[in-house]
């Protein structure tokens, strides 16, 4: 088997493994959304980090023209791995996100602030706070945080896919382009699911608030009628709100 064939097989293995991790992360995300949970558990984020790690390592094989990864590349997701892949962070919060995922994969805990029990805050470009909590047994992430991770992954997958597909030896290789396409489709599905859930919750919150206001007004009208109209011969009208 020639070097080119060996490389294609190795790249395909890393991408297939990345897809398996993303599929499992998506299954957990779907469960959290259907269960109407307010947070995402650590395994959801951990599997997502492994997906990115395997995707990146598959890309490094192509970038460095390797058939297998050297020892220096056999590390968990971290800033150095992106540097070895010659990928650069285009947004301010990208480096924070990678550091966040590195803590998850290495220690099973999110960044920890010793002054209190709340994890360090990752700040997006819009300066919206992304909360990360840690305790002794379970680690949770907010949906807003996970949505930021998805946007980050979609951005880098686009960069990686364009370069890999344009690589002459991979352009016609069976399974490479198709797998990258499925990864992109799954990420977009996950992003839409979270955005839709947040929109629905906001709508429900508004509807519930409006219903509460209506109920309070009705109660006040009933109270007024009982107190001031009873026995006075005043004709009262039913108010429909």
Q: What does this protein look like?
A:
With 241 residues, the chain is mainly α. It has one domain. 65% of the residues lie in helices and 6% in strands. It has a three-stranded antiparallel beta sheet with strand order 1-5-4. A two-stranded antiparallel sheet has the order 2-3. Strand 4 and strand 5 (139-142) form a beta hairpin. Helix 1 (3-34) runs antiparallel to helix 2 (42-63) and helix 2 (42-63) crosses helix 4 (94-107). The longest helix is centred in the last third of the chain and has 54 residues, at 176-229. The chain is globular, with a radius of gyration of 26 Å. This is HEPN domain-containing protein.
Report a brief summary of the structure.
65% of the residues lie in helices and 6% in strands. By secondary structure, it is mainly alpha-helical. This is HEPN domain-containing protein.
* Major beta sheet summary: 3 strands, antiparallel
Q: Span between N and C termini?
A: 78 Å
The secondary-structure class comes to mainly alpha
The number of strands is 5
Share in β-strands = 5-15%
Please tell me what the overall shape is: globular
- Share of residues in helices: 55-70%
Number of helices: 7
Report the radius of gyration as a whole number of Å.
26 Å
How many structural units, i.e. domains?
1
Order of helices and strands: HEHHHEEEEHHH
Strand order of the largest sheet: 1-5-4
What are the segments in which pLDDT stays under 50 over at least 5 consecutive residues?
A: 109-114, 116-127, 132-138, 202-211, 228-241
Mean pLDDT comes to 75
